[in-house]
């Protein structure tokens, strides 16, 4: 079974996807972490992020795995665990830049399909329900107000030890949403048959419970 969870940055996707995958015993494929890893490795190799082919070459050289460890879903990139180093504001920005390259998306979408088919999975991202798994058994699109999303991101970044300013994070979130929604290939958008959820006021538990009920009906 495939559960597709899409939505903009900070909408609560990751928290909801993690809780859902743990409850169901499914693998959790964090596709944003894959774009982040490609951005991180490209910068580390001195590759020009505007050079689509060079970044795609980096993407093709990477293999990804996901493992739950101490309540965290850890991405392994060529056997190496990546943690906070891919969560900085700089990597967020760079991931959104390199994710607009068609060759990069082609490679990562193909790897996401491969990893997702290995076993029942929850995949979270921007284009899972529209492009990666349009036939997913359950598609969910999660949103929240930009202000709430900015506050959540600030909390995450503070925990990662970054000094951050709420107004700046809000303007970066709005800019990143615009880049992700307006790009030509696989833009961020709700699949027509996706269940829309607004997490501005609802608790994670209530949303996860509702999704588990939906999945039980599908089984
Ligand atoms: O979800 P997260 O914030 O970690 O994603 C980082 C960036 O990766 C997004 O801003 C987006 O540009 C890109 N992304 C994407 N398609 C996905 C997942 C993430 O383009 N399926």
TrEMBL record:
Q: Which organism is it from?
A: Lujinxingia litoralis
Q: Does the keyword Nucleotide-binding feature in the UniProt annotation?
A: yes
Question: Could you tell me which Gene3D superfamilies the record lists for this protein?
Answer: P-loop containing nucleotide triphosphate hydrolases (3.40.50.300)
InterPro entries recorded:
Cytidylate_kin (IPR003136), Cytidylate_kinase_dom (IPR011994), P-loop_NTPase (IPR027417)
Give the catalytic activity. Answer: dCMP + ATP = dCDP + ADP; CMP + ATP = CDP + ADP
Top-rank taxon: Bacteria
Question: What CDD domains is this protein classified in?
Answer: CMPK
Q: Which Pfam families match?
A: Cytidylate_kin
Task: Name the family.
Answer: Belongs to the cytidylate kinase family. Type 1 subfamily.
Q: Name one GO molecular function term.
A: CMP kinase activity
Gene Ontology CC: one annotated term: cytosol
Query: What is its subcellular localisation?
Result: Cytoplasm
Q: Does the keyword Transferase apply?
A: yes
- E.C. number: 2.7.4.25
- Uppermost EC category: transferase
Q: What is this protein called?
A: Cytidylate kinase
Q: Where is the Cytidylate kinase domain?
A: 3-215
Kindly list the positions annotated as binding ATP: 7-15
What Gene Ontology biological process does one annotation of this record name? nucleobase-containing small molecule interconversion
Keyword terms of this UniProt record: ATP-binding, Cytoplasm, Kinase, Nucleotide-binding, Transferase
| UniProt main location, coarse | cytoplasm
């Amino acid at each position: 079974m495939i559960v597709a969870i899409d939505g903009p940055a900070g909408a609560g996707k990751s928290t909801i996807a993690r809780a859902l995958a743990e409850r169901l015993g499914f693998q959790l494929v964090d596709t944003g972490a894959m774009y982040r890893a490609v951005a991180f490795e490209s910068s580390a190799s001195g590759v020009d992020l505007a050079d689509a082919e060079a970044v795609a070459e980096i993407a093709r050289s990477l293999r990804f795995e996901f493992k739950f460890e101490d309540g965290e879903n850890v991405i392994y990139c060529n056997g190496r665990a990546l943690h906070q180093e891919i969560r900085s504001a700089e990597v967020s920005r760079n991931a959104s830049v390199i994710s607009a390259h068609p060759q990069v998306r082609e490679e990562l979408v193909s790897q996401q399909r491969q990893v997702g088919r290995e076993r029942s999975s929850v995949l979270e991202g921007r284009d899972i329900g529209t492009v990666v798994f349009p036939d997913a058994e359950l598609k969910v699109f999660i949103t929240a107000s930009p202000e709430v999303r900015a506050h959540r991101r600030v909390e995450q970044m503070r925990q990662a030890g970054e000094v951050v300013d709420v107004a700046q994070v809000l303007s970066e979130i709005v800019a990143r949403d615009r880049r992700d929604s307006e790009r030509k290939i696989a833009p961020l958008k709700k699949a027509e048959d996706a269940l829309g959820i607004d997490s501005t006021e609802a608790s994670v538990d209530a949303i996860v419970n509702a999704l588990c009920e939906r999945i039980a009906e599908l089984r």
